[in-house]
Design brief:
The complex is a heterodimer of chains A (157) and B (104). Chain A has one domain (10-129): Alpha-D-Glucose-1,6-Bisphosphate, Chain A, domain 4. Chain A is α+β, with helices and mostly antiparallel strands and 157 residues long. Chain A is built from three helices and seven strands; from the N terminus they run E-H-E-E-E-E-E-E-H-H. In chain B, 71% of the residues lie in helices and 13% in strands. Chain B is an alpha+beta fold and 104 residues long. Classes of the chains: A alpha+beta (157), B alpha+beta (104).
Chain lengths: 157, 104
């Protein structure tokens, strides 16, 4: 377990059975096919999730009523190797409009073989979300909260 | 309860500002007092409250005390997002596998 405290980050990696180009395209253009469904923050019923394939673009939910909820800014887009996007979501899972209070996610794609790709994710600068921690502790600890949702998910496999 | 203490501690706007400064960069009392329209004793008092709520912690650096985020508070955030990404990446892995079946 990491003991880093000055700039807290989460690092995860997963290996997928696909060439690097496909691993990259599923992560980006098909993000709606895997993003956890209860973690859309748009108020309207979700029509689709869009990952704009360029630095300066956005990742957003589009509602059936045409509304949009941009919850990430694409900071780097380097197919098929790397993307970086901001995390403009606060700790109550609402849109964070102050960029100084947003963290950042970097995803790297590394070909292990022509048909296997390692995906390394780092979610960093978490301290910028600062002031919501007390609420967060509440939601993490609550018996019907996030922990239960996760267990349900794990049971499906 | 730790989170209730934290909520109370951060309800004060000046204290919240001090917390955000410390979150950005570990700081001594004097540095915070210089950057903010608050006296040094007042900054010290706010830091005591934040420390009691386990939002910040302090350490000695020579003759100074440096205040920084309490890892426990940071840990709650990390755990939360850690769970989110575990779940999201598992779903991503499954989605890639489905795509492969479609093309093969």
């Amino acid at each position: 377990m990491s003991t880093e405290t000055t700039s807290p980050a989460i690092r995860k990696s997963v290996v997928v059975d696909a060439p690097i180009e496909r691993a990259f395209s599923v992560f980006t253009e098909d993000i709606g096919s895997w993003w956890p469904p209860e973690h859309h923050i748009i108020e309207a019923e979700l029509a689709e999730m869009v990952f704009e394939p360029r630095a300066g673009g956005y990742v957003y939910d589009r509602g059936v009523d045409g509304s949009e909820c941009r919850f990430a800014r694409v900071l780097a887009y380097e197919p098929p190797h790397r993307i970086v996007f901001s995390w403009d979501i606060d700790l109550q899972w609402k849109l964070e409009t102050d960029p100084n209070k947003t963290s950042e996610v970097e995803v790297r794609f590394v070909a292990e073989s022509p048909t296997r790709t390692r995906v390394e994710l780092e979610h960093r600068n978490l301290e910028r979300h600062g002031e919501g921690w007390p609420n967060l502790r509440d939601s993490v600890d609550s018996p019907g909260g996030w922990g239960l949702t996760l267990r349900r998910f794990a049971e499906r496999f | 309860m730790a989170y209730q203490e934290g909520l109370t501690a951060l309800a004060d706007p000046t204290r919240r500002t001090i917390f955000e400064r410390v979150a950005r960069r570990p700081s001594a009392v004097g540095e915070l007092a210089r950057e903010l329209p608050v006296s040094r004793p007042a900054v010290s008092q706010h830091l005591r409250v934040l420390k009691a709520a386990r939002l910040v912690t302090d350490r000695s650096a020579g003759s100074r005390r440096i205040y920084q985020l309490d890892p426990e508070g940071v840990g709650a955030l990390r755990d939360y997002l850690d769970q989110f990404w575990s779940r999201a990446l598992a779903a991503y892995q499954a989605a890639v596998a489905e795509h492969q079946e479609e093309v093969s």
